[in-house]
């Protein structure tokens, strides 16, 4: 299948590579010229803008930072809407505001262009090994048609409902992840402050009801003082901002989300925004004057 791909950053580049490995013909564009050269060496065709991608591909995947970038690439000058044919499909795998997904889809529909919103979860490691989780909104027949394509990048691809539902699911995911990391941070801070070894507390609780994927992924990072980003604080701030905006739009109260937004903003203020979201533990360490770390 001839596939367009726009946005080859931390997540998009390995996802695109997995499509090439699966045997698809790729037409790509991104801001980084070095990345374009790298993709050309792997067999992709590099072009200059979304319009040129859409002129050549029946399905176009976007993986972009946020709503404004998706709108610009889809609907702006030199965008997908200028080059796509009737019946073309945009699969937006960015994590954006669901109200924007619906608005962009509405504009594309006027030109006969279909759209799925298909945000992903799993971070860079799962993007590299092709095991991301994909949450998809849009028409079910379009989902069915491109299910196998999405599975070439993923470990699971789940249909959630009408357009926008994929990003609603992603926002729910990001709320749960943020609150879970904060709970792990709070608990291990208590352990350290009370004189217990965080590592032993972690081992004691991980097999019970408190055990979780987040606990197993993030507690070791905290104790090893490893804050290299799998998912950056600044990106989680973006997602929580979209969650709060969506909550306000439908009058859903999100008090824990609001609290986590304040914690992450405080970390951004001291220069931690590029770090992994496991650095939430630093907030708790500062206010409790203790370090969560393994014994020497």
What's this entry about, in short?
This protein is about 55% helix and about 15% strand.
What form results from the Cα inertia axes? elongated
Level of helix content? 40-55%
Q: Main sheet, how many strands, which sense, barrel?
A: 6 strands, parallel
The unreliable regions are: none
Q: Work out the radius of gyration.
A: 20 Å
What are the SSEs and their pairings?
Elements: E1 2-6, H1 12-21, E2 25-29, H2 33-41, E3 45-46, H3 50-56, E4 59-62, H4 67-75, H5 80-83, E5 89-92, H6 98-109, E6 114-117, E7 120-121, H7 123-129, E8 132-137, H8 140-151, E9 154-161, H9 165-193, H10 198-205, H11 213-223, H12 233-250, H13 255-269, H14 280-288
Parallel strand pairs: 1-2, 1-4, 2-3, 4-5, 5-6, 8-9
Antiparallel strand pairs: 7-8
Describe the structure.
The chain is built from 14 helices and nine strands. The longest helix is centred in the middle third of the chain and has 29 residues, at 165-193. The mean pLDDT is 97. α1 (12-21) links the parallel β1 and β2. It has 296 residues and is of the alpha/beta class. The chain is elongated and about 65 Å long. A six-stranded parallel sheet has the order 3-2-1-4-5-6, with helices on both faces. A three-stranded mixed sheet has the order 7-8-9. The chain has helices at residues 12-21, 33-41, 50-56, 67-75, 80-83, 98-109, 123-129, 140-151, 165-193, 198-205, 213-223, 233-250, 255-269, 280-288, and strands at 2-6, 25-29, 45-46, 59-62, 89-92, 114-117, 120-121, 132-137, 154-161.
């Amino acid at each position: 299948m001839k596939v367009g791909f726009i946005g080859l950053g931390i997540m998009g580049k390995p996802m695109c590579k997995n499509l090439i490995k699966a045997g698809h013909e790729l037409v790509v564009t991104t801001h980084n010229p070095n990345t374009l050269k790298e993709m050309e060496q792997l067999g992709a065709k590099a072009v200059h803008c979304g319009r040129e991608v859409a002129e050549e591909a029946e399905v176009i995947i976007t993986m972009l930072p946020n709503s404004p970038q998706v709108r610009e690439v889809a609907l702006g000058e030199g965008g997908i809407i200028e080059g796509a044919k009737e019946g073309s499909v945009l699969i937006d795998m960015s994590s954006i505001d669901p109200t924007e997904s619906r608005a962009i889809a509405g504009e594309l529909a006027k030109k006969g262009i279909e759209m799925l919103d298909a945000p992903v979860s799993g971070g860079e490691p799962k993007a590299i090994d092709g095991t991301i989780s994909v949450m998809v909104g849009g028409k079910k027949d379009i989902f069915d048609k491109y299910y196998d394509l999405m599975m070439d990048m993923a470990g699971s691809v789940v249909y959630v409902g009408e357009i926008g539902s994929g990003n609603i699911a992603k926002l729910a995911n990001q709320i749960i992840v943020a609150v879970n990391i904060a709970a792990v941070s709070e608990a291990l801070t208590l352990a350290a402050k009370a004189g217990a070894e965080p590592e032993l507390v972690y081992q004691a609780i991980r097999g019970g009801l408190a055990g979780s994927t987040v606990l197993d992924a993030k507690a070791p990072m905290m104790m090893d003082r490893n804050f290299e980003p799998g998912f950056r604080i600044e990106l989680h701030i973006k997602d929580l901002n979209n969650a709060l905006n969506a909550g306000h739009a439908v009058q859903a109260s999100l008090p824990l989300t609001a609290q986590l937004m304040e914690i992450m903003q405080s970390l951004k203020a001291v220069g931690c925004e590029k770090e992994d979201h496991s650095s939430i533990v630093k907030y708790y360490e500062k206010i409790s004057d203790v370090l969560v770390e393994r014994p020497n």
